[in-house]
């Protein structure tokens, strides 16, 4: 009897200690949480470099120090402290005094919050069946979160997701899955890596099928103008800026497969100084044709003219999104792929409905799909399985 009372008393004390730890976490919990936020803000400073340089085909290593986008002044260390420097300098360059976009502060702050949330997820909250040592999962999730932030901001601004993020992220996800088997709820390193490859392949295959079906459903888009509209094409290395009127696009956006064609009905067109009037220009990814003449675009620097009609190849989504979901699958697995696609589509539909309701339908057409995919994947990371369980119980009448 005395033994039973002692055991009961011990369990009571243990429960009390757990409750107290939940209410008053030990000091090291605060230290780790603060470290996660500061680390995230510091990484966010590098992510800003990637967001600015990758779409411009600039090296993220040279120059090694960040520079002002306006005067190109290389920023010294004491003016490049995450979060603090932007606030102290009031969002201006210390050299030229020109404004520095709030995005730089926002990315650092957002990355800090995301790193903190991920740390709390794997350390304080965990998930059913996780041993406490699973804090190691913070590393791959931090890497994944950083990739999501870069992809989101680049996609918002340039409507592309660079291969360094998508393909590089998929490779990183697979390698980390081989190294950390619990990333895929496995004990075997090999099985974890194989499930990661399967997740990446499933994601790529599903969205590739969507793109192919969308190609058949949407076909081409024809733009007709009441009066002649200016056209320009300017090459920069292996990419080109294509502008019609006020709409500026990347040339590669129209040629995912390489065999698409873009037609231009021109009042006049000038190709590196050679002028033609009242012609139809047929453009491929690497070639431009006018009647029997053709130009290899890699040898052309500039095209300009006036157009009355443009026929564009049209896709349901870009191939950058297809590769991006493969990256998500490599980190989070095949279940996350299915959840992410469904939730991203749902969020996109809700945003579309909301913009129509407030009379701003054009806003939804300017939001790429990559940010929806990133948001859907983060929802899965933090509460996806719990949402599915809740929905299953609710739909089957088992209660919440």
From TrEMBL:
Keywords: Cell membrane, Membrane, Transmembrane, Transmembrane helix
One Pfam family from the record: Peptidase_A24
GO cellular component, one term: plasma membrane
Subcellular location: Cell membrane
InterPro entries: Prepilin_IV_endopep_pep (IPR000045), Prepilin_pept_A24_N (IPR010627), Prepilin_peptidase/N-MTase (IPR050882)
Start and end residues of each Prepilin type IV endopeptidase peptidase domain: 143-219, 314-353
TM region positions: 30-54, 102-123, 135-154, 166-184, 190-211, 324-357, 369-392
Main subcellular location of this protein, as a coarse class: membrane
Similarity section: Belongs to the peptidase A24 family.
Protein name: Peptidase A24A domain protein
Species per Swiss-Prot/TrEMBL record: Chthoniobacter flavus Ellin428
